[in-house]
Amino acid sequence: MSLFVQKFGGTSVADAERIENVARLVGKTRDDGHDVIVVVSAMSGETNRLLALASEVSASPSKREMDVLVSTGEQVTIALLCMSLHKHGYKARSYTGGQVRITTDDAHGKARIQSIDDKAIRSDLEQGNVVVVAGFQGVTEAGDISTLGRGGSDTSAVALAAALKADECQIYTDVDGVYTTDPRVEPKAKRLNKITFEEMLEMASLGSKVLQIRSVEFAGKYNVPLRVLSSFAPGEGTLISYDEEEQDMENALVSGIAFTRDEAQLKITGVPDQPGIAARILGPISDANIEVDMIIQNTGSNNSTDFTFTVNREEYTKAKAILADLAEKLDAGEVQGDDKIVKVSIVGVGMRSHAGIASKMFKVLADEAINILLISTSEIKISVVVEEKYLELAVRSLHEAFGLGEDKDG
Q1: How many domains does the chain have?
Q2: Which domain holds residue 150?
Q3: C-alpha 135: how far from its chain's center?
């Protein structure tokens, strides 16, 4: 008998009919002889409704009380799912995060899990119960309700799977797995049967929306096999694990293409070329809570340098104003910016053992007359910044050039 943790997001439990569908999926797993822990999100739209209510009452509500409020969404779902399971003849018991005793720090709205008391859950599993747990929430040492922030239900599921040493953590979504790229941009995109944690981390950080990066990090840290499945269509989904040998590494040079549309580029020219200049530029940017992604520094003549970096497009105006102020203080040249850029990345652990992938990527883009503005690399990824108008052409050209649209097993 195996133990599976199954997580269902808001779209999977959006209404009574979909909750019934979840009950059938969970019931089938029980019928196959497995133990099941189910982690659920609030019904689709419910958290936004609660946030809207809060804004009607207060312009700046207490973070503690906000956690008390938004955590009620998952409490509704766990009760309804248990009722549905009972109706179908399955024993089931619901738990809030506090009842499980998922202990977190006291950073309300973005708490981090510190420990999980699994005694009650293990007892229920031994008695043949399906255990249904509210995702996204826990409790502080002081007993206050806390929430885990964006992607919190995925994190709850992975944490429970790690604590109970589950055989697999299955994340049910509205897509049937991880694809070589977004099928809405490249219709020839293929579902991957397998992908490594490293690749999935890169894909998630570079724009893939299938899984939250925090949950993938957690799963990788505790070696919890993750599987992405669809709530609405049967299938094997995509398995995310450390098992690189089964990935057919000699053939899979590139596993996928990720992209982000919300990029902006800033450049300050004629900066004095001296020690500490990068800190003097990026310090005020960091102090304004603006995250910087790619950074390029080009040393020029006359002891000066040009300093270029990218930020999220929403932070562009704010960052540009800070940079303009810095230019005066540093007696630098002009500040240039572009908020019509995108980042396109190729990802694959096979890149470790194969030369020439970067040059192939650059040639493919050159053949399409796509100018590369910035380049960033790591051991298993290459990212380029290009003009926004070339996004779809770049993704499709690279997808074809690296054979990602061809039929494959993994």
Answers
A1: 1
A2: 3-173
A3: 16
